[in-house]
Amino acid sequence: MEAASLLLVQLKQLKQAIEPERLALPGGRAVLLRPITPLDAEAEQAFVSGLSLDSRHKRFHVGLRQLPPDLLRRFIDVDQHDHVALIAEDTGAARLVADARYVRSDDRPEEAEFAIAVADDWQSLGLGRSLMARLSSHARRAGLSALYGDVLTENRRMLVLMRGLGARTRPHALGPQIVRVTFDLGN
Ligand SMILES: CC(C)(COP(=O)(O)OP(=O)(O)OC[C@H]1O[C@@H](n2cnc3c(N)ncnc32)[C@H](O)[C@@H]1OP(=O)(O)O)[C@@H](O)C(=O)NCCC(=O)NCCS
């Protein structure tokens, strides 16, 4: 790549970089929102295996107890362009309490699939809403046209949250147990 084009790419990536941010939550709690890094491997694994069975099922749609090594590697070693991952850290306890990410689709790179999970004891505090709002605004700034995700039909909380943020939902080809949720980003 020519030096000028490389500089343009780097400037674009810099504009899209996720700045660490402190977020105050009800009840005097607070988290640090920041991009995930490879140093978060142990904390990410602890976060996933610490989710309740119900939350893990809603997040992964399968009975997964912990992340297999290759998936863990993929989760922490992200380029923040094709794969963007934002986490919330309870800095007092050095513990991850939420994870929201999107991965660009291979055949339609202007679209990406999102997923999110919030630790059970940090749910219903507005964290899911804040993370999804940040993730979709990041995707919009990155020039994506849509963010989509597959949500279990039984996952009322997630569907209410998504519709509240302006997403549309439609039936899924896989059957009535799953709903396709899409944010049109206007690009
Ligand atoms: C779904 C999830 C991400 C939401 O995160 P959260 O931090 O609990 O969500 P928030 O506190 O931001 O609020 C969620 C919204 O749902 C609403 N809500 C809360 N409990 C609800 C319930 N039982 N039924 C319907 N709506 C509910 C709240 O009113 C809130 O709406 P508002 O912000 O307009 O007031 C979180 O519950 C989670 O991680 N669940 C398990 C994994 C999962 O389902 N992931 C999604 C699949 S990709």
Describe what this molecule looks like in 3D.
It is built from six helices and eight strands; from the N terminus they run αββαααβββαβαββ. The chain is an alpha+beta fold and 187 residues long. It has a domain of 128 residues: Aminopeptidase (3-Layer(aba) Sandwich), CATH 3.40.630.30. The protein is globular and about 50 Å long. Coenzyme A binds next to helix 3, strand 5, helix 5, strand 6 and helix 6.
Are there runs of 5+ residues with pLDDT below 50, and where? Answer: none
Could you report the average pLDDT, rounded to the nearest whole number?
A: 93
Q: What is the architecture of the domain at 18-145 at the second tier of CATH? A: 3-Layer(aba) Sandwich
Q: What is the rounded Rg?
A: 17 Å
Tell me, what's the shape?
globular
Span between termini? 26 Å
What CATH first level of the domain at 18-145 would be assigned? Alpha Beta
The sequence of SSEs as H and E is HEEHHHEEEHEHEE
Task: Sketch the major β-sheet.
Answer: 8 strands, mixed
The number of helical segments is 6
Kindly summarize this structure in a few lines.
With 187 residues, the protein is an alpha+beta fold.
SSE layout and pairing:
Blueprint: H1 3-16, E1 21-24, E2 30-35, H2 41-50, H3 53-60, H4 69-76, E3 83-90, E4 95-104, E5 111-118, H5 127-141, E6 146-152, H6 156-164, E7 168-172, E8 175-184
The protein binds coenzyme A.
